[in-house]
Structure to design on (288 residues):
C-alpha cells in the first residue's frame, strides 16, 4: 500500500473541507503541506490522522497545515520572543545565522543591535 | 404482407436494442462527459461490453477514486477497471533547515506550545522526540514538530499526567 493510499482519507477530507494541499515524498515520509480555511478544518484533518495512527508513531507522515493564507512549509516566518540575558549574537547562534540577519529583518522595531528587550518578538529570517 | 413483416421486424429490432442497453460507444461518451462534469482530468476511458477501462496519470490518489466513482455512477456501466490509472510521481520534500536552525525552531515552538517535558533532538533533519508530556498536550506537541519544517519525526514521546 502506498503512503498516499494509507492517508487517502486525510486527502479526501481536505478536498471536502476546502484545504488546499501539496504532496511530496522522500525518505519514506509523505509530506502533506497545506492551507486550511479554518482551525476546525485543520482539526478535522488531525482527527483523521489520529484515527489512522492514534499515537503518531509510524513516522511516515508529516502533516503541515497552516490556517488561512499563511505560507505553507518550513520556509515561512518564525518569531522568537526575547528573554532576559539574550543578545542578537546568542539568538543568531541558536538558529545558526549571523546576528546581522536578525537585526536587518527587524529594523522596524530595532534601532540599535545592542538594545533588545525581554518580551520583544523578533522575526527570524529563513527559519 | 411483406410490409407488415418489415414493420414487425423494425419493432422487434428496436425492442431488442433497448433491452441490450446503450452501445459501448454511447457509454464511452457518457462516461467521458461524466468525468468532465466531475472535474476529473487526465483520465481517458474505453468501454468494452459495458466495462469501463480507465487509464491515465492523475495528480493524486483522490482523483483516481473520484474517477472510479464517477464512471460507476453512469447508467449502463457494469463495472469499472481503474487499475491503469497511475498517480504522478511526487516531488521530494523541501529540504529541512540546517540542524542547528531546526533545533532552535523546534525547541522554541515546543516551548511556546507549553510542551514542557518533551525533548527534541535533531539529527540530519529528523526530529527525535522523547520525554513525557501530559496526555492533553500530546497531540499539540506532535503537531508542533510536524509544522517545524522537519523532514521526519521519530516519535517516542510518552503520555503522562
Amino acid at each position: 500500500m502506498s503512503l498516499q493510499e494509507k492517508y487517502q482519507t486525510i486527502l479526501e477530507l481536505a478536498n471536502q473541507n476546502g484545504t488546499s494541499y501539496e504532496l511530496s515524498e522522500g525518505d519514506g515520509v509523505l509530506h502533506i503541506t497545506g492551507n486550511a480555511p479554518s482551525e476546525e478544518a485543520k482539526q478535522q484533518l488531525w482527527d483523521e490522522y489520529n484515527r489512522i495512527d492514534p499515537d503518531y508513531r509510524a513516522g511516515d507522515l508529516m502533516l503541515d497545515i497552516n490556517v488561512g493564507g499563511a505560507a505553507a512549509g518550513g520556509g515561512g516566518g518564525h518569531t522568537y520572543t526575547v528573554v532576559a540575558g539574550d543578545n542578537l549574537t546568542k539568538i543568531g547562534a541558536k538558529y545558526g545565522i549571523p546576528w546581522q540577519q536578525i537585526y536587518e529583518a527587524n529594523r522596524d522595531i530595532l534601532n540599535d543591535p545592542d538594545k533588545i528587550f525581554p518580551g520583544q518578538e523578533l522575526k527570524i529570517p529563513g527559519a | 404482407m411483406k410490409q407488415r413483416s418489415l414493420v414487425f421486424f423494425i419493432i422487434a429490432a428496436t425492442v431488442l436494442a433497448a433491452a441490450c442497453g446503450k452501445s459501448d460507444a454511447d457509454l464511452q461518451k457518457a462516461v467521458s462527459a461524466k468525468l468532465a462534469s466531475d472535474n476529473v482530468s487526465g483520465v481517458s476511458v474505453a468501454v468494452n461490453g459495458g466495462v469501463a477501462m480507465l487509464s491515465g496519470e492523475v495528480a493524486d490518489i483522490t482523483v483516481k477514486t473520484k474517477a472510479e466513482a464517477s464512471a460507476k455512477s453512469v447508467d449502463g456501466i457494469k463495472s469499472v477497471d481503474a487499475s491503469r490509472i497511475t498517480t504522478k510521481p511526487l516531488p521530494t520534500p523541501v529540504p529541512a533547515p540546517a540542524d542547528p536552525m531546526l533545533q532552535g525552531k523546534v525547541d522554541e515552538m515546543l516551548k511556546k506550545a507549553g510542551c514542557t517535558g518533551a525533548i527534541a533532538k535533531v539529527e540530519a533533519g529528523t526530529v527525535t522526540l522523547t520525554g513525557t508530556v501530559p496526555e492533553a498536550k500530546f497531540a499539540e506537541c506532535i503537531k508542533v514538530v510536524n509544522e517545524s519544517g522537519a523532514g521526519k519525526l521519530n516519535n517516542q514521546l510518552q503520555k503522562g499526567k
Remarks:
- Residues 70-76 of chain A have pLDDT under 50 and may be disordered.
- The helical segments of chain A are 3-6, 8-17, 39-52, 88-95, 99-105.
- The longest helix of chain A spans residues 39-52.
- Chain A touches chain B at residues 2, 4-5, 8, 11-12, 15, 23-31, 33, 46, 50, 55-57, 59, 62-66, 73-75, 78, 80-81, 93-97, 124, 126-127 (CB under 8 Å).
